[in-house]
């Protein structure tokens, strides 16, 4: 094999690998009721199925270039893709909502045709005029060539497209979209995994597991003579994606780091929570100002700490909400038990029981996957809930503080 042939083979091989990685990216984005197919209607296509019918169909043509560069008006990948889609349209389900996406690692040039294709619906008539015009120019240029001269590689595709009816061209360009991204495809896969609350430290390993699971599934299907068609459930269950997510999240979260955060916190000289709901609730049952400030600091640091875990992908928003809901449940059981026989007409007794409810709530442990949270973090969580307010200490706290 001569060097030029070897380079061409390497480019083709890399293009297939890029296509597989784009497929994996789309698998991670798949939602219930969707199916992802490889090299059926197109390089990749996504079917959205409802009531047993294909309601939406997204066709993705994947074009990869080692020297990413720009997509220009004379880009052969662009013209070849449009020509292929026009030939394919008659074979597509007639009742589906169709979209055609050119997915490329090239940057979109600002030349006339490419610029119009960035917003094809607004430029359809101009696009049709341009296609006929460029076909005419290519024809004129080709007619002046000697027989030994090489043929313009886009000539046959431009000619076929120019000879297509306006109605068919409008149908396609009304549904056409570019997806241009020259960032690393592996970085985009990692970013998609990060959205699923996989910790940043586990992203590389999780990505490799997902890629491996897909490669194994693809190989198995091809050996059996099957098409590579993967549903949401196939990916999540049979290919083990849910298991990969659970495994990546399995590393225990270092909640004890909150203790360092709490004791390293530099309190400002003046700190007041007088306009907070939790302040009103605690003052009402006789908690002194120093303790109220302590509780307020625990609250703001707890919120900061949980936000940092969410940003790192260690603890998702839904997991934090679940923790808070469990806290409300624990508080509610305690609150009902203590206030069950409270005589509200006896304010001293009511105050004593309310204070007891507060004290016992503050020492009630909160757990995440059998890991008990540090006391200050638990207290901060409960105080946040009283500040919303979702919980309270008096029997009549809702009527008094909920507004």
The percent range for strand residues is 5-15%
Helix content: 55-70%
- Give the overall form: elongated
What is the assembly state of the chains in this entry?
A: single chain
Largest sheet: 6 strands, mixed
How do the SSEs run, as a string of H and E?
HEEEEHEEHHHHEHHEHHHHHHHEEHH
Q: How many distinct beta strands? A: 10
C-alpha end-to-end distance:
80 Å
Structural class assignment: alpha/beta
Topology:
Elements: H1 3-29, E1 34-38, E2 44-50, E3 53-63, E4 70-71, H2 76-88, E5 97-104, E6 107-108, H3 112-117, H4 124-143, H5 155-162, H6 166-173, E7 176-180, H7 185-194, H8 203-223, E8 228-231, H9 232-238, H10 241-248, H11 257-263, H12 277-284, H13 289-311, H14 317-339, H15 347-362, E9 367-368, E10 371-372, H16 375-387, H17 397-401
Parallel strand pairs: 3-5, 4-6, 5-7
Antiparallel strand pairs: 1-2, 1-8, 2-3, 9-10
Task: Walk me through the structure.
With 403 residues, the protein is α/β, with parallel strands linked by helices. Helices cover 55% and strands 12% of the residues. It is built from 17 helices and 10 strands. The protein is elongated, with a radius of gyration of 31 Å.
